[in-house]
Amino acid sequence: MSTSFSTSSARNVFYGGTAFFVLLFAALVFQSESETPKRDRREMLAANPQIAAGKRIWEDNNCIGCHSLLGEGAYFAPELGNVVDRFGGGEAGKAAVKAFIQSRPPEGISGRRSMPQFNLGEKQLNEIADFLEYASKIDTAKWPPNIQG
Ligand code: HEC
Predict the structure, then answer these.
(1) H or E stretch including 136?
(2) HSE-up of 137 (CA within 13 Å, CB side)?
(3) Ligand 1 mean position to 112 CA, how many Å?
(4) Same domain, yes or no, for 34 and 53?
(5) Which of 83, 86, 100, 115 to mutate to test the pocket of ligand 1 (most atoms within 8 A of CB)?
(6) In this structure, are 16 and 69 located in the same domain?
(7) pLDDT tens per residue, range 16-33
(8) Residues 129, 97: one domain?
(9) Count of domains in the chain?
(10) Do 8 and 69 fall within a single domain?
């Protein structure tokens, strides 16, 4: 068997491969950096401080300790990135989300995973609903694949 794969070919494969993947990585970084601002609807955030307030309520109450948001978080409770759409979308969806959060029995529901009662006021409920509606408008390239989340 002839050994035609010389040291210099190995070096060329190494340098060529390295250059190729460095360029590919740079192209993907460029693509993410130019696509992400279009997809995450930053103009909605800028125009509506309620959404930022809702995000703070989300963080302060550790909703992500049980829920996932766009796939990130805990898998104890349903995905909430698309919950406003799941509850009917638009104003009706937001109202249903607020009603759900408000109606949690403080003692929990025996025999199933249940969500705590957070005792949020009307203003906070509106803010969290606006934040969840904003999350439902982020272009996630059709993820999650079904409305159940
Ligand atoms: C201790 C865990 C826990 C925390 C923390 C928690 N949840 Fe939940 N949540 C649940 C569980 C469990 C369910 C499903 C309950 C059910 O179906 O009866 C749920 C359901 C929901 C639903 C309805 C989802 C659906 O598709 O039916 C919404 C909306 C929701 N939670 C919002 C929130 C928000 C907003 C916060 C933070 C303020 C939060 N949750 C924090 C456990 C939690």
Answers:
(1) helix 122-137
(2) 17
(3) 12
(4) no
(5) 115
(6) no
(7) 999 999 999 999 999 999
(8) yes
(9) 2
(10) no
